[in-house]
Amino acid sequence: MRLFWSPKSPFVRKVMVVLHETDQVGDVDTVRTPVQMAEPNPQVLEANPLNKIPTLLLDDGRVLLDSRVICEFFARRANDTALYPNDDAGYFEATSLQALGDGLLDLLLVWRNWHRDRGLAHDAADPYLDAFGLKVTTTLDHLESRADELGERFDIGRVSIAIALAHLDFRWGVLDWRAGRPNLAAWHAEVSDRPSMRATRILDDSATLADGSAS
Ligand SMILES: N[C@@H](CCC(=O)N[C@@H](CS)C(=O)NCC(=O)O)C(=O)O
Prior knowledge:
Elements: E1 2-5, H1 10-21, E2 29-32, H2 42-47, E3 55-57, E4 63-64, H3 67-77, H4 88-118, H5 127-145, H6 147-150, H7 156-171, H8 182-191, H9 195-198
Parallel strand pairs: 1-2
Antiparallel strand pairs: 1-3, 3-4
Bound molecules: glutathione (GSH).
């Protein structure tokens, strides 16, 4: 199996955390794959018409996308019931939290591109920037109010939220997301110490890439 991979992509990191949690890292060949929203990569497009990573190429020729499907594929392959609980309540709580974490990440990626493409400063006046900021703040406040619940287990929802918060540290230090959110910050410090999270820390290898790709 080959995984279109980048050490900077938070969505790829979800897959890598699942591989570590389920002891399958050795089963996958990772292929460093630069992608940029505004400059589609022909190699990725051939397998995934949306030009996104992670994309998983199976040995029998099938292609799996996106991170949600690939994470669940590996959890099922390992008969995991921790990341994806068997009971309906647990499963839908985990996958709904995953949707929240992934949605936060989608928002952060678009927000960054919006700034960069228009050459706007962080605090520039723009209705889209205001809306992006409001949604991110509202999501973080919501998570702060659920910090106790987050600490109850480590499932795919918690994986996604933990990685989204780490992505804020990587790209959005200016937001200082921990300020006023002590419980969320404490939860994040704890989960970041898990071996699977430590082994998959985001690494900025831009300097080694010819085009300095964003992901
Ligand atoms: N919903 C997708 C999102 C993946 C995604 O946005 N990946 C980014 C890199 S972090 C990407 O491939 N961007 C390239 C593009 O949008 O063209 C998933 O969960 O895998």
